[in-house]
Amino acid sequence: MEFVSQNWIPGNFKSVPDTGRTVQIPSKLPEDIELSHDVVQHGWTPITTTTSVLGVVFESGVALAADTLTSYGSMACFQNNPRILTVNQNIIVAAAGEYSDYQFIRDVVEEKVRTEKSLNDGISMKPKALHTWLSRVLYNRRTKMKPLWSTFLVAGIQNDVPFLGEIDKLGTAFVDDQIASGYGAYLALPLMRKAIDEKREKFNSKLTKDEAVDLLKKCMEVLYYRDARSHDKYQIGIITKDSVEVQNLALKPRWEVAKLVQGYE
């Protein structure tokens, strides 16, 4: 038996979603037939983009933060586009970059979850498995010169241990206790590292859930003042071994701090 499906091949546990079209052309054609070029090109540059996404591990879980703005170039075009996805009771995912690429991955992941549920075998996807699979998908697309212009943060609980990992558009993947993408890697990540180091040095412990949430709120406020592509409405996703929740929040800007910004022309 010959398996021709693009979605499942025996032994292929890292299946990559097929997004292109392959046309087979016979080796010999009649002289009176002309071939029309049917070329589909997309993904060369990001169009509708989102900005930073943040993640931090605390003592019993992981928290992610991302605003809801999608920009069309430099225009704040769509102001209510959430990008924190609850995959299952073990995993939440957040994305930054091209919003349509996030929507594509979201649809594929949700299809994988539906397939798992239909098997009804009591086994659900784990965060490390999704992290590895996403790294293979993004690396596969980058090698085909059709990259997904997105960065993904995968957070979850595996064997009662918090997990947080990042995958960028090149397929580069790593795991850490605090991660920030985009502009947040320059402004928010130092704040997150400082808070985690201070808690470790003073109390030899990790952040609590409330401390992690307060830290992300502080980072989102700093980004709102400094990042022109950020928004005052944002989400914080929190996952522990007992629950998964996504909070919708809004900042209360204090523009009197503008007086403290000096030395710029």
TrEMBL record:
Localization per record: Cytoplasm; Nucleus
Pfam families named in the record: Proteasome (PF00227)
Highest taxon, organism lineage: Eukaryota
GO biological process, one term: proteolysis involved in protein catabolic process
GO-annotated cellular components: cytoplasm; nucleus; proteasome core complex, beta-subunit complex
Keywords: Cytoplasm, Nucleus, Proteasome
InterPro entries recorded: Ntn_hydrolases_N, Proteasome_beta4, Proteasome_bsu_CS, Proteasome_sua/b, Proteasome_suB-type
Nucleus in keyword set: yes
Family listed: Belongs to the peptidase T1B family.
Subunit structure: The 26S proteasome consists of a 20S proteasome core and two 19S regulatory subunits. The 20S proteasome core is composed of 28 subunits that are arranged in four stacked rings, resulting in a barrel-shaped structure. The two end rings are each formed by seven alpha subunits, and the two central rings are each formed by seven beta subunits. The catalytic chamber with the active sites is on the inside of the barrel.
Protein's job: Non-catalytic component of the proteasome, a multicatalytic proteinase complex which is characterized by its ability to cleave peptides with Arg, Phe, Tyr, Leu, and Glu adjacent to the leaving group at neutral or slightly basic pH. The proteasome has an ATP-dependent proteolytic activity.
The name this protein goes by in its record: Proteasome subunit beta
